[in-house]
Design brief:
four-stranded antiparallel β-sheet, five-stranded mixed β-sheet, 15 strands
Length: 274
């Protein structure tokens, strides 16, 4: 099964939503219907269940700098169709509850100190797409990278961290302690920012060498998200496939995602129709 989506200015959000539905963690299950709930209409069809398999094909801008494998450096939201599937945020919004609550991705749980200046995160133990352990040290490295911007990198999407975080530390493999300069009522929303994505430490250390700060190359890519990197032809296409190491068993439903660049509107419409 192949799902073709021609992505224009209006349909970008639709495509991103389709990807999110395929792989985003659900929140708490809906409460059971009460005795007062009206019965289902006779002969009403059953609610369709998700089916596993298929390829989602998106028409996307596949050229640098719009597309960047290093999500911390990304300057365009287009990169979220890649980074949001290869990597994971610390927290996220509960899409099953209208985004009113936060749920854990990299962090299983979190707590705030009474003075509001310390956040302690319990880190989920995961394995990267290349089989390496992902621990609290990876998370602390990501947060310190965003805070300090090594090699004078411009990490434009993580300003909410730099504004308040004084230090990120990993006292043990399952705990990250964040010390804030001052209490911040919006800090949890910052941790749930979809651009604040966690990339394995071994990848970032390789490209952040002293005086280096080089761009991430396809052969560098490793992640913890629902899809793993397959290949990228700059200006042409990028392909990802379902990861067997994703922490939520049975997800994602899609087999793969292909991002292709069809800048000519007539070509995009023809591809959509076929």
């Amino acid at each position: 099964m192949r799902i073709r989506v021609s992505v224009g200015p209006v349909l970008v959000a639709v495509a991103a939503f389709a990807t999110a539905v395929a792989c985003a963690p659900a929140g708490e299950p809906p409460a059971a219907a009460s005795a007062a709930s009206p019965p289902a209409a006779a002969g009403a069809p059953d609610v369709a269940q998700p089916k596993r398999g298929g390829t989602l094909i998106l028409n996307e801008n596949m050229q640098k700098p719009a597309m960047d494998l290093d999500q911390h450096r990304a300057i365009s939201s287009d990169s979220l169709n890649v980074g949001g599937n290869l990597y994971l945020p610390i927290l996220g919004e509960d899409t099953q509850n209208r985004g009113l609550n936060n749920i854990g991705y990299v962090a299983e749980s979190w707590e705030q100190s009474p003075d509001g200046k310390t956040y302690t995160l319990k880190i989920r133990q995961m394995t990267t797409h290349k089989g390496k352990p992902f621990t609290a040290e990876d998370v602390a490295y990501n947060l310190e990278r965003m805070r300090t911007q090594p090699n004078k990198l411009s990490l434009v999407r993580s300003g909410c961290l730099r504004a308040v975080v004084q230090k990120a530390a990993a006292p043990n493999p399952t705990t990250v302690v964040l010390t804030l300069q001052t209490p911040s009522a919006s800090f949890i929303s910052c941790l749930a920012n979809p651009h604040i994505l966690m990339i394995p430490k071994h990848v970032l250390e390789e490209i952040d060498g002293p005086g280096q700060g080089r761009a991430m190359q396809p052969e560098d890519v490793d992640g913890i998200g629902p899809f793993k990197f397959v290949k990228w032809v700059d200006g042409s296409m990028l392909e990802m496939e379902r990861s067997d190491t994703y922490f939520r068993p049975g997800l994602p439903y899609l087999d793969r995602i292909q991002l292709v660049q069809l800048p000519d509107p007539s070509s995009a419409i023809a591809a959509f129709r076929t």
